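Before going further, it is useful to explain how the protein records used in this thesis are read. An example of such a record is reproduced below.

***
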Amino acid sequence: MKAKTGIVFEGGAMRGLFSAGVQDVLLENNIKFDGAIGVSAGAAFGVNYKSHQVGRVLRYNVRYARDPRLSSWQSWLKTGDLYGADFCYRELPEELDIFDAETFAKDPMEFWCVATDIQTGDPVYHKLINGKTADLQWIRASSSIPFFARPVKIGNRYYWDGGVSDSIPLEFFEKRGYNRNLVVLTQPKEYRKVNKHTYLFLKAILHKYPQVLKRLKTRTQDYNAVLDKIAKQERSKQIFVIRPPHTLNIGTMEKDPRELTRVYEIGRKTMVENMSSLKVFLKQS
């Protein structure tokens, strides 16, 4: 039986420019997957894989890096969203740097994103259909960090960032039958998350969402456990992992186009160096 291939994109705000470089090299080499899944920036940037838009992620981030509508404290104070919702999920993809929804819909690869239900704290995995308004709302939900963004209403439920409940959704994809996966991380191999003593602050501002707080309280341990599982599967060659060779040192709202380009180019270089090995891995049955 032919292996079912998947690609898993971690989030990480502007560290996602690393993943954008990776995916552009994959597209240029015509590497196809049966499915993809992304969390937060991994979803917002990763959808361009299915729409075949090489260079788009870097292009619009560089062009609008200093535009407060893209991301700014001004936007947060005015709208409640650090990343401007109307600009990022309507004006930009529909008018300024058009997202190719037609190609997205036609490509047979599945694309999933992960959001967190704010009432249950559970991850919700949503399969995107056509790259249009409803899908863009799911991507927005997947990328909406608690406190720094308003909860996103879809149907009769509200959602926040998927990274709260499932930062690297490899297990979900494995359960769906994806048995040969490329995992694209945005932190180096030695990285492990450490507690930052912010829980009491979060508890004070997110007290209306006890299940989200429960997730945030154990997020460090949960995230590190996933990294340990990934390391084990990588050693046994069950998965293929692409990650930065060192800490990327880029801000959440990076405004310098040179820094955005630097991180993107690290992603490209890393993928080029690993392309031959990846091709061998994907051909295995």
